[in-house]
Amino acid sequence: VVRASISERRLATLKSDFVANVSHELKTPLASVRMFGEMLLTGRVRNDDKRREYLQIIVGESERLTSLIDNVLDFAKVERGMEAYSFAEADLAEVVTRAVESQRYRAGRADIELRVVAEGPIPGRFDSRAIELAVVNLLDNAFKYAQDTPYVEVQVAQRERQVEVVVVDEGPGLDD
Question: Which of 19, 35, 47, 68 has a Cα at 20 to 30 A from 27?
Fold first, then answer.
C-alpha cells in the first residue's frame, strides 16, 4: 500500500510538472502571435516590409503552437492506449528536410545557420508526422538552449539496418 501511494504521488507530481511545462511552452508562441497581431491591428506598422515580417512571425509562431498542441494530443492518445501512429512508406531524408525547412525562418531570426546533411534517400516505413514533430522539437530545444551557436545541423544517415537522426549544435548538451 505504501509503495502504491508513493508511486501515485510520484505520478501526480510528474503530471503536474508536465502540465506546467506545456502551459509555459504554449504561452511563449501565443504571446508573440498576440503582440505582433495587436501591432498590426492598431496600425502602428506603416512599412509594408515590416508588416510582412510580422505576418511571417505570426504564421511561424502559429505553426509552432500547432505543433506543440499536436504533441500534447499525441501524448494523450498514447497514454490512453489509442493508436497514435500511422505507418507508411516514405523517404526519411525528405521528411527530416521538410521539418528542418519549416524552422528555417525561425533560425534566420535567431541568426542561426540551419543545415541538413542527408546521405541520399533513406526509404523506410514510419509515421512521417511523428518524425517531423520529433525533429521540430529537437530544433526547438537547440534554438532555446544554444542561443549563441552559429549553426544547427541535422544529420540523417542509414547505419546498416538502423537509421539515425542527429541534431548538432554548440549548446550545453545533455549527459549520456
Answer: 47
Phi-psi bin for 98: left (phi > 0), alpha (psi -120 to 50), beta? alpha
Nearest to 151 by CA among 133, 168, 173: 168
**Bridge partner list, 84:** none
Amino acid at 39: M
Smallest CA-to-CA distance from 56 within 79, 30, 33, 28 is with 33
Helix (H) or strand (E) holding 38: helix 2-41
CA 66 to CA 78: how far, in whole Å? 18
**For each of the chain's 176 residues, which pLDDT tens digit applies?**
888 888 888 878 877 777 777 777 788 888 889 999 999 999 988 899 999 999 988 988 888 788 778 777 777 776 777 666 788 999 999 999 999 988 888 888 888 999 999 988 999 999 998 898 889 888 988 888 877 788 999 999 998 889 999 999 887 766 65
Cell of 134: 520529433
